Amino acid sequence: MNIDLLPEEDLVIRHRSGEPGFYMRPEEQALHPHFHYQYELILCCGGTAEFVVAGNPYTLTQGSVLFVSNLENHFICSHDDAFERYAIRFSSRAAELMRNPVLLSLFRQRPGGFCHLYQCGEKELAHVQRLFQSMEREYRNQKPCWSQVLISTFLILLSGIYRRNPDVFPANRHPEGQMLIFRVQNYLENHLTEDLSLDAVSARFYVDKYHLSHQFTRFTGYSFKQYITSARLSKAKDLLLHSDSEIQQVAEQVGYHSATHFIRVFKEAEGLSPLQYRLRQRQS
Q1: CATH number for the domain harbouring residue 202
Q2: Of 5, 70, 175, 253, which has the fewest CB atoms closer than 10 Å, so is most exposed?
């Protein structure tokens, strides 16, 4: 009997050291930025690496922690041979189970001036590494309740960062109204195929649409329309990379009823048609 709350693909943790695989080489990632429709936390355990997240450059050294949303392209510019890291990726379904908008604001909110990088002190790093080792064992062994244990350990990790540096969490700066936006984000990401007009969503949550629009931009850093478009295109890129669905099918699965409209929006955002994007990424 399977009593785990999530399938394996919704919660993934990896430990890597030494030379990255081909797809992670800087020269490849500069041409084809790394992308997946999941949130990600990367811990640098040793060595150095240069990352770019949503156009922002960061240098990772031992103890660096990088927070990436499910809407942000990111890639490695350079690294040394000693670069060692843990990476944990989780879906919006996993985020719902965590039920803490303040802790998750590191992944879901992008106000002006947001910094994707956090630096652990020496003692903190030792503690964080032990937590990652525990999570990696749970993921590798996948005993009963592994996903619940992994989520609990991950929340302990984020809670520890919060206790030491609460100001790095965007939601901590403006706590009022954050639960509403957290619920709206969950709803949008899980209902991409439906009518997500501001009128429809505000009516569903019994809130004035102008208030929702203002609060949404305040917390996420995106306008309501920008967020939905980014979420749909991010999900589309994931489908283009990891399925053989026809372009029309991809369009329908992310809420576009017209393939022509989907192709136009995709090309405006990416500079390539969906088919060109799929071919380029698979050739790499």
Answers
A1: 1.10.10.60
A2: 175
**DSSP conformational letter for 19:** S
Q: Which domain holds residue 199?
A: 178-283
User: In terms of pTM, does the model score above 0.85?
Assistant: no
Tens of pLDDT, residues 248-278: 999 999 999 999 999 999 999 888 899 988 8
**What values do phi and psi take at 87, rounded to 5?**
-140, 130
133 shares a domain with 20: yes
DSSP H helices, 88-223, are: 92-98, 101-108, 122-141, 146-164, 178-190, 198-204, 209-220
pLDDT in tens, 8-45: 778 899 998 865 554 455 555 555 555 567 899 999 99
Q: How far apart are CA 219 and CA 50, in angstroms?
A: 28
Show the tokens assigned to 142: 């996948």
The helix/strand/coil state of 13 is strand
Burial of 167 (0-12, 13-18, 19+ CB in 10 A): exposed
Residue with tokens 């005993």: 143
- Going by C-alpha positions, the residue among 6, 1, 13, 45 that lies closest to residue 141 is 13
